[in-house]
Structures are given as structure tokens and as C-alpha cells.
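2024-03-11 09:14:02 DEBUG pipeline.ingest accepted 1 chain
2024-03-11 09:14:02 DEBUG pipeline.ingest length=121
2024-03-11 09:14:03 DEBUG pipeline.predict start
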Amino acid sequence: MARIKRGVTRHARHKKVLALTKGHRGTKHSLYRRAHESMLKALSYAYRHRRERKGDMRRLWILRIGAASREHGISYSKFVRGLKLAEIEVDRKLLADLAFSDPTAFQELAGIAKQNLESAA
């Protein structure tokens, strides 16, 4: 059998890794072995942080809703409880957007939440 030389294949693989690590510091973008290690770390961080971003966004929405609801004299937890008692099912993303872009609509929701809390108590 003929001997297989991997020159073209290896060169292509190295070029791909070095292209992925473009912009990394030091030898991590120019030496293949260091670049390969850097690439593996970078890809694993990217994968993990794509999932973390979902929690970050939820925390941001809750923060915005809490700030807007406190402006109307009700805490975040009481606001959410009041909406649940009123059977208004609006997700946090939409509530945060309302608090930011349409304060009058959010004020109405806060009023509804307060009314339902008073009637439940």
C-alpha cells in the first residue's frame, strides 16, 4: 500500500484553527498548538455563555420591572402577585419592555395589580 502524506489536510486544519483564533493575544493566534488550546477554551466559553445570557436577561427584566413598579408604590413581588390574581399572563420580557417604552400602560397594570391585592386581602 502507498504511504499517505497528510500535508494538504494538516495545512488546511491548521489554517482553520489559526483563522478561528484571529484576535487572540500573544502566541495564541500564531502557534498552532497554543492556538488549538485557545480555540477549545474560547468555544467552550461561548457555548456556556450563550446559556448564561438567558439568565442575565431575565435578571435585567426583573430589575427593570422592579424599578418601574416601585415608582408606582408597589414592590416587584406584590406586583407579580397582583397580576397573577388578576389572571393577567404577561411574561417578564414584555413587562420590562412596557416599563421602558410605554410607562402609561405599565401604570395601568400596576393599578390593576394593586386593586387585586387589596381585594384578595
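2024-03-11 09:14:41 DEBUG pipeline.report The first helix runs from residue 7 to 20.
2024-03-11 09:14:41 DEBUG pipeline.predict end
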